[in-house]
């Protein structure tokens, strides 16, 4: 039996009256506020009164049953809680995506550790400038022709198995990105798992905002992982443009001396094609 | 160049657009010589496939001549006479290597819509909405074909253009449907829909060893072709109780293999059709499941239901109970034609298969709007209109 991995996808349990997710003070406040709203609504009546009755009933039910879906949605996941404790962050929103690339782990790792390769595939990134041995400045085009940049430190805590990027000091919201490389079973290539954590300050509101933004990051991550797979497996990244005019220009400034280049496209022999 | 573009539901227009160019090393540009309508385009026309944008070039069943190839293309060069399988494979991902080309992981540049709808991104399909990659279609003077070595096939001598063009889609789709049905010696196969795809499924079922094929439709010209060209017993569902007839013809067992070549726009005469149609108009679900329900109900116990009719989203009143309690196998897919093209050309060369009768209306590209109107309404016995760009 293999060890059960820690899943980013774990969530707080769905609350039920027998397993409530509200404490006694929260329940009391909810019940009281609900009763007051109902009473006031009934007194007022009409178009202003009935919505109050409805809202009051919801609040009263919340207090009576001790269950709240909204609180559940805003509860940090077990993975986030462990991460926050480990890094000493006040709050975090974490997303993850995985992909299998049909190439040996060494090859996939070598490709991803080279910012010149990766940067060309990250949506929005125009240039990466090497500023130190492990530090890079990522330049992106933001909305309304603004350029944004972010100083990022790249590390390899486990050679051939893990890459780690952190947004350096001075950035407004901390980011922490990990890429894990594992061999897929039975020679099926390499499983690449990316975990993106972004800092979510300001309690529940910040968490809700970060969760909304993470929907876009998730889409970008989907595109990035697909592009990595396509580049490595087929030697190109699929496109539906009619012309080359919209081609993204990517610049890598001061590349490291022995930066590995994209492996040239090698068609597989055999197979069915 | 000139091209037929989608402008909105049931609105098509021939206009002048930019020529395509080579963008990736494995691309080829093909000058289109014949480009056919397909039943799948009707789902785009009807507005049942989301993510279409005004100006999108449609069309995906075509043959032509290679005019330019990218630097990594090995097996083709300028002047080659080719047919294309438009369900794009890359040839390198684990699915393509298993020859499940229509499950390709690397051919769709817009993965997110199908990732959300289906759980994993679908492959790219030429001329078939942005969810399937947003590739420009073949009703045009030129077309860009990605992964040319995998998706282009040279047309052998002795195979005429009007035969070859259908080896792009209708023939491999019908063949795939029959192959998926797992036909055994002595089997009776029932095929719903006698469009180009259904007619090819009937012939393929015989090539794969079926004892007898029963074909179901309502259009007299198509039923006649099913009998005369493909050798089926034809049933008109408007004048026949299909379920009773299928049991009557199979000693009460039901057909061993059932093939759905109709898809989400099934027409019907029973109450479930009106239920589906109403919900579809209210955008509550996307499919009309008449054929699927009928075939599952008719299929003999332990039999196979093979689906190539296209469905896009969610289906209501799906008879799961019949599948479980009759131990049915349900198989489906977009056609992985790359698997079959060479075998199909051999059948054509040996005279065992001739799809050329599907071409009822040769037309110029400029007349393509009328061509689609005719194909959609099934007027003038239009089975497939095929456009020749000038
Ligand atoms: N899976 C694939 O790769 C693939 C490829 C090509 C086409 N298709 C699909 O195959 C289907 C057929 O394509 P086509 O080009 O032959 O289309 P078509 O429109 O020419 O033919 C469809 C036929 O189905 C008949 N029909 C409608 N309702 C019926 C019912 N209740 N019972 C029996 N027949 C009925 C129609 O009368 C018509 O003759 C479409 O759904 C198309 O999208 C799938
Ligand atoms: Zn088609
Ligand atoms: Zn593939």
From TrEMBL, chain B:
InterPro entries: ADH-like_C, ADH-like_N, ADH_Zn_CS, ER, GroES-like_sf, NAD(P)-bd_dom_sf. Residues 8-380 form the Enoyl reductase (ER) domain. It comes from the Bacteria. Gene3D superfamilies: Medium-chain alcohol dehydrogenases, catalytic domain (3.90.180.10), NAD(P)-binding Rossmann-like Domain (3.40.50.720). Its cofactor is Zn(2+). The keyword Ion transport does not apply. Pfam families: ADH_N, ADH_zinc_N. SUPFAM superfamilies: GroES-like (SSF50129), NAD(P)-binding Rossmann-fold domains (SSF51735). GO terms for molecular function: oxidoreductase activity, acting on the CH-OH group of donors, NAD or NADP as acceptor; zinc ion binding. Keywords: Metal-binding, Oxidoreductase, Zinc. Belongs to the zinc-containing alcohol dehydrogenase family. PANTHER family: DEHYDROGENASE, ZINC-CONTAINING, PUTATIVE (AFU_ORTHOLOGUE AFUA_2G02810)-RELATED, ZINC-TYPE ALCOHOL DEHYDROGENASE-LIKE. This is Glutathione-dependent formaldehyde dehydrogenase. It comes from Pseudomonas thivervalensis.
């Amino acid at each position: 039996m293999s060890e059960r991995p820690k899943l980013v996808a774990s969530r707080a349990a769905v609350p039920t009256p027998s397993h409530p997710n509200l404490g006694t003070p929260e329940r009391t406040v909810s019940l009281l506020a609900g009763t007051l709203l109902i009473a006031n609504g009934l007194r007022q009546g009409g178009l202003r009164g009935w919505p109050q009755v409805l809202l009051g009933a919801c609040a009263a039910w919340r207090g009576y049953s001790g269950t709240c879906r909204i609180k559940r949605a805003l509860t940090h996941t077990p993975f986030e809680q462990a991460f926050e404790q480990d890094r000493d962050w006040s709050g975090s929103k974490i997303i993850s995506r995985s992909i299998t690339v049909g190439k040996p782990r060494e090859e996939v790792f070598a490709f991803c550790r080279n910012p010149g390769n990766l940067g060309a595939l990250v949506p929005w990134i125009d240039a990466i400038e090497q500023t130190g041995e492990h530090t890079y400045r990522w330049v992106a085009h933001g909305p309304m022709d603004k350029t944004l940049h972010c100083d990022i430190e790249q590390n390899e805590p486990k050679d051939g198995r893990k890459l780690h990027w952190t947004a350096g000091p001075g950035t407004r919201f901390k980011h922490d990105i990990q890429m894990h490389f594992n061999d897929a079973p039975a020679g099926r290539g390499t499983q690449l798992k990316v975990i993106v954590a972004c800092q979510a300050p300001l309690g529940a509101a910040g968490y809700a905002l970060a969760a909304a933004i993470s929907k876009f990051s998730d889409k970008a991550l989907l595109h990035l992982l697909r592009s990595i797979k396509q580049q490595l497996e087929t030697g190109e990244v699929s496109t539906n443009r009619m012309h080359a005019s919209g081609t993204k220009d990517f610049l890598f400034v001061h590349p490291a001396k022995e930066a590995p280049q994209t492996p040239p496209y090698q068609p597989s022999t055999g197979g069915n094609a | 160049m000139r091209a037929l573009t989608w402008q909105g539901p049931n609105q098509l227009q021939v206009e002048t657009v930019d020529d395509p160019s080579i963008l990736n090393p494995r691309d080829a540009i093909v000058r289109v010589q014949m480009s056919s309508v397909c039943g799948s385009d009707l789902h785009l026309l009807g507005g049942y496939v989301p993510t279409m944008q005004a100006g999108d070039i449609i069309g995906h069943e075509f043959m032509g001549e290679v005019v330019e190839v990218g630097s990594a293309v090995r097996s083709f060069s300028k002047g080659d006479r080719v047919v294309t399988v438009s369900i794009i494979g890359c040839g390198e991902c684990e699915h393509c290597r298993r020859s499940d080309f229509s499950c390709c992981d690397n051919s769709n540049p817009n993965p997110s819509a199908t990732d959300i709808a289906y759980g994993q991104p679908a492959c790219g399909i030429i001329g078939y909405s942005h969810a399937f990659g947003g590739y420009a279609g073949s009703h045009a003077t030129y077309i860009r074909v990605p992964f040319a070595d995998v998706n282009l096939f040279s047309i052998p001598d002795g195979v005429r253009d009007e035969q070859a063009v259908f080896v792009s889609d209708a023939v491999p789709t019908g063949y795939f449907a029959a192959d998926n049905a797992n036909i055994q010696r002595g089997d009776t196969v029932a095929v719903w829909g006698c469009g180009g795809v259904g007619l090819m499924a009937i012939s393929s079922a015989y090539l794969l060893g079926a004892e007898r094929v029963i074909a179901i439709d309502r259009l007299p010209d198509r039923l006649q072709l099913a009998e005369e060209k493909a050798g089926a017993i034809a049933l008109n569902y408007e004048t026949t109780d299909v379920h009773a007839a299928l049991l009557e013809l199979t000693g009460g067992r039901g057909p061993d293999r059932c093939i759905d070549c109709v898809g989400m726009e099934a027409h019907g005469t029973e109450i479930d059709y009106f239920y589906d149609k109403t919900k579809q108009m209210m955008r509550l679900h996307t499919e009309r499941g008449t054929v699927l329900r009928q075939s599952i109900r008719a299929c003999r116990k332990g039999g196979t239901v093979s689906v190539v009719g296209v469905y896009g989203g969610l289906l209501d009143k799906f008879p799961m109970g019949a599948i479980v309690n009759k131990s049915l196998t349900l198989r489906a897919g977009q056609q992985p034609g790359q698997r079959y093209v060479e075998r199909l050309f051999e059948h054509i060369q040996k005279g065992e298969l001739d799809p050329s009768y599907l071409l009822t209306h040769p037309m110029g590209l400029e007349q393509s709007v009328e061509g689609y109107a005719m194909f959609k309404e099934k007027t003038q016995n239009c089975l497939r209109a095929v456009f020749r760009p000038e």
